[in-house]
Amino acid sequence: MVLISREGSARILGVNLGAVTEDVWKESPALRERVGREWTKEHYRNHRRERTNRFINELIKILDQLMFAGGYGHLILAGSPRVTSQIRKALPKHLAAKVVDIVPASEYDRTKDVVAATLLSFIEQEERESLAVVDRLLKEVNTNGLAVAGTRASFESLKRGQVDVLVLGKAYEPDLGWACGACEAMEVGRPAPNTCSQCGARRIGEFNVKEELVRMAEQMESGVEVVNHSDALMRLGGVGCLLRFLGPEQYGAKAA
Description:
CATH 3.30.1330.30; 8 helices; alpha/beta; 4-stranded mixed sheet; Nucleotidyltransferase, domain 5; 2 domains; 5-stranded mixed sheet; single chain; 256 residues
């Protein structure tokens, strides 16, 4: 999420790799128009200070609600350095922890240019987090912990509802799986048979395994982490899962 703040105005944008997906809130109080009319300049400065504090507090409340509702994990503050500094100081700890960058911008900068300037920060942060997930996966796999790797193990873990996070390499392209249209049996990692190994029916169809893994993960509300480049992940087969719990057979394997 990008918060663009200028003197007396702010705009909150939901961003997906630089594309503005939601213009979720706008506010533009026209205080300057009242200067020289019913207020003196000193009165205006005092009012502006109070109004600014109220404005920032209200802005942060809305920002908090929107980030929670939209599941946003990163926050970039952009705009006037003076205003962004005030907002940064006023952020509660849980929002301050999500700030990944502060981008200076003037009132003359176009919104799309400001958003474009945030792209690199988003991408770099996403890359760091993706590689951290891969490191965790490797550690768990190498210690027989709460993780599995490879297409078949990941597929079976998803079927059992064990998966906390599905980790996919962007270059991961497994062979097609097969499914029976009669008994709904599904299999990956093996060529499609002429007849179903479960019920003997000939209603065999193929499916895209990568898409099915993601669909299963989303259905059980598991996280999905797509890693742009990781040789270590590709050596594991390009896919793995961090698990919520171990199955009975996995406990047995650990004991052995």
